[in-house]
Amino acid sequence: MKGLDPSGKIFGWMLRLFARKKTSAIDTELPFAAMMFTLMAASGVTLYESWKKMRDINLLPAMQKDAQDVVRQVEVLGQDPLTVMYKKSEKTASKPYRDLLAGYVSAVRSGGNVVNFLKSKLHSIFEQQSAASIRSIEKLGTLVEAYAVLLIVTLCTYILYVVMSATSLFDLLQTGRTVGSVATPPLMYAVILLAMPAVSILFMAVAHMSRKSSLLNVMGLYRRAIMPFAGAAVFFLLIALVPQGFYSVTEVVGLPVLVTIGLAVVSLPSALAYHRIASTNFAAEEAMPSFLRDVTEARKIGLSPEKSMIHASKRTGYGKFSELLGLVRSQIEWGVSLKKIFSNIRKKIQSWPVLIHFFILVETIEIGGGSADALEILAEYSEKNRDTEVNKRSLLMPYVILSFVWSVLIALTTTIVALTIYILAQVSLPNLSSSAFASMQQQINLFSIGIIFQCWLSGFFVGKIREGTFAAGFKYSALLAITAYLSLVLSKNFLEGIYRAPV
Q1: pLDDT digit string (tens) for 441-460?
Q2: What is the per-residue pLDDT across 8-25, written as a single tens digit (0 to 9) for each?
């Protein structure tokens, strides 16, 4: 049709997506960049010099890129720094960033107090971040509720298929036709093992865009799962290629329990590694604001910045973070530079807020001598950032409980319906062939495997929602898969007790 340009529309969509991603990255990094600007200004450093410092901060990649652009236009093209910042404010899609740049230019040109302006703007940015954090929790809650609705639809699909299969079976018997077996349509395999997991993966992709992790460099956790996954895949491939071995193994152990063990084995190594990393880094996130507050109070009574850090590191009650602070204290006493100490910390800590706060502390001391006023700003907003994150995690905790509820519900309801029909068929249809009973049992196993795998995938969705990273999903996925299997076993034993007939 005339006027349609699919390639142009796709290109435009990609540009808009890239722009939104860049804006989101700037909004995430802006509070820390604004804190850096404010602390440098309180220490007597101009904003342009702060831009030059920002070029070396790879913890803020979006702001680092903008800093390189600002410095390039000033030093290579010879433009005025205020003019460059004003033009950048007109081009950016981030409103807080635009207000910060334009407001700073206006404050300088009018002769106002730049430090007071930056403090006020920093306060405003953190207030907006706190409000955005609350709104994001509401959005995540809506996403979880939508995912729960999907699982209810999955449950209804399973039950509907079971009922339709039973109805077809009874219709055949009423017409007097011989029923040799009850075959499972290939479409049902596709729905249970492909379509439903694909929808879960789609929800995980949406969660990935909505929730960001505070942990850096977690790819090693995913690589840990490769070998167990390959081992489990080879095992199931071998028993599938050897029919006699397949029937003997599934007859003795059962295919659902094998799948549960396989999925748990895939998740377990990464789950243990993540637990060690998370316990250390979350303890550091919890303790870092208290450490900064102690450094600030020690600085107020006249101690040097280094002695203030030594004094603050001697305090107990930091948990696992105390071990790292002990190393920091030892290195300061041995005369190691603060920048070298920060480089050593980066090798042990993966929490982005902890690293950026420690970096700003080091820069404040190195450039401005670590004045009490500058450290007060850092401590205050570090505490606000911690309170925001703690509040977010506590509000998201109920959704973890909900995931276990829906796992139990899906497993119990679907299995009870399927097993009830199977047991009633054994009792009321004694002329049904053994091959038909075997086919029905195969369908029940298929449903069980689909439920267990769906719950295992749900763990990664819940991990992303709760802690911001799919790596947290390894522990939840293993627990949810085991919960689903135990629910299947309980429902089976419950029905056996009622009907007193072996399955």
Answers
A1: 666 777 788 888 888 998 99
A2: 544 443 445 445 555 677
Q: Are 50 and 40 in contact (CB under 8 A)?
A: yes
CA distances from 382 to 1, 2, 61, 168, 286 (A): 57, 57, 20, 65, 10
DSSP string, 64-85: HHHHHHHHHHHHTS---HHHHH
| Pairwise CA distance, residues 367 & 292, whole Å | 17
**Taking the alpha carbons of 241, 244, 245, 248 in that order, is the dihedral positive or negative?**
positive
382, with CB counted inside 10 A (0-12, 13-18, 19+), is: buried
Which sequence spans correspond to the domains of the chain?
6-112, 136-278+392-499, 283-386
Q: CA 503 to CA 492: how far, in whole Å?
A: 8
Residues 6+ apart with CB under 8 A from 439: 181, 182, 183, 184
Identify which of 136, 32, 56, 26 has the alpha carbon closest to the alpha carbon of residue 353. Answer: 32
Element (H, E) at 256: helix 255-300
Give the amino acid at 279.
Answer: S
